[in-house]
Amino acid sequence: MKHILITLSILLTLQAAKAGEGMWLPLFLKSLNEAEMQELGMKITAEDIYSVNKGSLKDAIVHFGGFCTSELISGSGLLLTNHHCGYGQIQSHSSLDNNYLKNGFWAQSKADELMNPGLTATMINEIVDVTAQALEGVTDKMGVEEREATIKLNIESIRNSLVVASHQAIEVRPFFNGNQYFAFLTTTYRDVRLVGAPPESIGKFGADTDNWVWPRHTGDFSLFRIYAGPDNLPADPSEENIPYEPKHFLPISTDGVAEGDFTLVFGFPGRTQQYLPAVAVEEIIEVSDPNKIAIREKALNIIDKYMRSDEETRIKYASKFASVANYWKKWIGETTGLKKTGAISKKQKFEKEFVSMQTKDNPARNILGEFDALYAQRAPYAYVRDYYGEITGGRIVELMRVVGLAQRMTELYETRGAEAFDNFKGRVMGFLEGFYKNYDPAIDQEVFAALSEMYARNVEAKYTPEMIQDLSPAAEKNYGIIAMKLYSETAFVDKDKVFEMLEGDAEEVVARLQADPAYAFGAEWKNTYDTKVLEPYDNYNFKIDSLQRIYMNALMTTFPEKRFYPDANSTMRVTYGQVKSYNPSDAVTYSPVTYLDGVMEKYKPGDYEFDVDEKLLELYDNKDYGNYADRENGKMPVCFIGTNHTTGGNSGSPAIDAHGNLIGLNFDRAWEGTMSDLNYDASICRNIMVDARYILFVIDKYAGAGHLIEEMRLVRPKLEYTRNPKDEIKIQRRKRKANR
Ligand code: ARG
Ligand code: ASP
Questions:
Q1: pLDDT for 18
Q2: Which of 489, 331, 512, 509 is nearest to 399 (CA)?
Q3: Residue 258 forms part of a structural domain
Q4: How many domains does the chain have?
């Protein structure tokens, strides 16, 4: 009896699929989600969201550059995404004289739209469940290597068996840690032009201080346009191309949102790990996150000092600073949230119950013990891996980025010969052009000094290159001097010298690269790391991955009634929930909508994060909001939050209403809930969206780009919908329910 009760209680906690949790595959919405979505207020069907046979919402959802989401909002390929997603492009067209970051950019006609070679826009044509073919011939008795090899061959034959047009590509990806496989047929457009961007004082209002924060007041959007060849198919960037005509684009609702409204977010979430065992989450909270936070904090303090003292440096480093600061802050929120909601003890409790539900002879009983052992064995290597990865990965010590490229060039020459080398060299030179435009060796040298010292102090000497080893507390090294010496001797910090080095045939170039002192230093560091850390790390990690697959499978068989959703893996997903307030701490409630009044409350004249420009002040003073103000209170809405389960990569995803119209643009999450990547908790996990009405207001009233509004389709679904009194009663009932 007791056993049954326990079982029931877990089932209940698992079943109470707290509205919001889950990143669902669009092709299973009908069977898994449609009923719940409609219960939450959705008026359309699963088929309207994802269909292979007719135009559906999915045809308007575009993977932007492979790292963000965007959506089509006009019949002429107009694409909406975040300001921070288009940031690199906006920055690359900017200079001190033509500072689009600072002043914004609005193409007055299509001829003024700016090309971005290399930027892509990918659409999903079809998703196919290929689990059976991918796992054909795979047995439980197989060793991991044999299993991988079999699957690899199977995937090859899946690729060959699917019929695709010449402009399409196929990607086959594992789900549920390799328990299922899906193929994605995609079409990628290569001519994507910048159409419009608000100034940073709107698009990045609040900058890093407000990043990951609710209440938020950022107009984080920018506009691009997809161009196609005369056949509407992908073509290389060219003046000849014409605006792409989509199968579907999203109408935009100007009715706004209210607490309890249904919201759907459709996009390409990058990576989550919802099914990790407690021991793994504990390592993240206690070791990994704190170390990475400390490393980034050190670098950020140095870069910030330089950025604040010089405007040109600020432009150069703005994008890099933002990207380093982004996860620094996210990890702080993540550990805080995980601790606050008792994520580890919840997982431990669940694991105990999971084990108790397995029959005596079921090997699944041992999985959690095996995890404990493997994570303990991996721990010392994981620790160094975080240090090495953060410091030398190219974001912190930038010199190591160039060293890394030089190492890859030599490696290529040695393994694949001169031709492969020359090809890669061409690409490297292209990259370096941009790299040195935004590089300041003085800043990098100071970061290097601080971080190499940190490495030496915190990582055991046997994993540390000799040059920076902290030999003994008595014989402390002066890292400033080490850095000065290295940075004055290496050619890699100077664009002209590097390009000179790269001249000539492969053999000469490689010899020159290898003779550089930074190369030698980096090679020693990498070599020590690769052999003494990475090898054992990979070895344990491989076992952990394979155990995670077995665990995932056991979870699914132990709880057959539960709806499982696969972890994010940069593939197309749907998440849905409601507009909802939350309590960040005792006695504090955050309401779900912010207004332009809040921008003015935060306004700090002259401050680079919280300045507001003249034009916006004037519109605010005159309450000149056009048709975009809230119809009930007359105020200008800016952002709102919901319970949608999102992650990195979901930036730029559309927030869609019950009828399939765009109501907002996803760009962030509330800080307390960034733990949603590891353990979604409906009480504090909220995604942050810009209100569509603010976007329209900025384009129309602020920028005077009414010609862009004319391309769009503005709709008023609530107006039409509430004409029916029966529906009105339903809405009210739903709202009361949501508020309970
Ligand atoms: N936190 C958001 C995301 O993870 C926005 C990041 C860009 N903004 C910034 N201030 N760094 O991408
Ligand atoms: N800001 C993130 C992005 O760029 C979204 C998130 O992590 O919530 O994708």
A1: 55
A2: 489
A3: no
A4: 1
Relative to the alpha carbon of 653, which ligand is closest? 2
Closest residue by CA, ligand 2 atom 5:
648
Tokens at 547, concatenated: 């155990």
Substitution candidate for ligand 1 out of 271, 609, 667, 675 with most atoms within 8 A of CB: 667
Q: Is residue 172 part of a domain?
A: no
**pLDDT digit string, tens, across residues 190-227:** 999 999 999 999 999 999 999 999 999 999 999 999 99
Read off the pLDDT band of 6 (50, 70, 90). very low
184 occurs within a structural domain:
no
Tell me the three state secondary structure of residue 505: coil
pLDDT tier at 19 (50, 70, 90 boundaries)? confident
Residue 84 appears among annotated catalytic residues: yes
591 is catalytic: no
546 is catalytic: no
Task: State how far the Cα of 170 lies from the Cα of 163, in Å rounded to an integer.
Answer: 10
- Which one of the ligands is nearest to 265 CA? 2
For residue 1, pLDDT over 70 is answered with: no
Catalytic residue, from 48, 59, 191, 220: name it.
220
CA-CA-CA-CA torsion sign (261, 37, 341, 382)? negative
Please report the pLDDT score of residue 476 as a whole number: 66
In whole angstroms, give the CA distance from residue 408 to residue 208: 34
Sign of CA dihedral 288, 292, 293, 294: positive
Q: Which atom of ligand 2 is nearest to the CA of 646?
A: 8
Pocket test for ligand 2, best of 575, 650, 687 (most atoms within 8 A of CB): 650
Domain that holds residue 405: 278-552
pLDDT of residue 722: 57
The pLDDT score that the predictor gives to residue 723 is: 54
Confidence of residue 739 (pLDDT cuts 50, 70, 90): low
Percentage with pLDDT > 70 across the chain: 94
Question: Does the C-beta of 313 come closer than 6 Å to ligand 2?
Answer: no
The helix (H) or strand (E) run that includes residue 485 is helix 479-489
- Residue 501: half-sphere exposure toward Cβ, Cα within 13 Å: 24
Residue at 329 is within a domain: yes
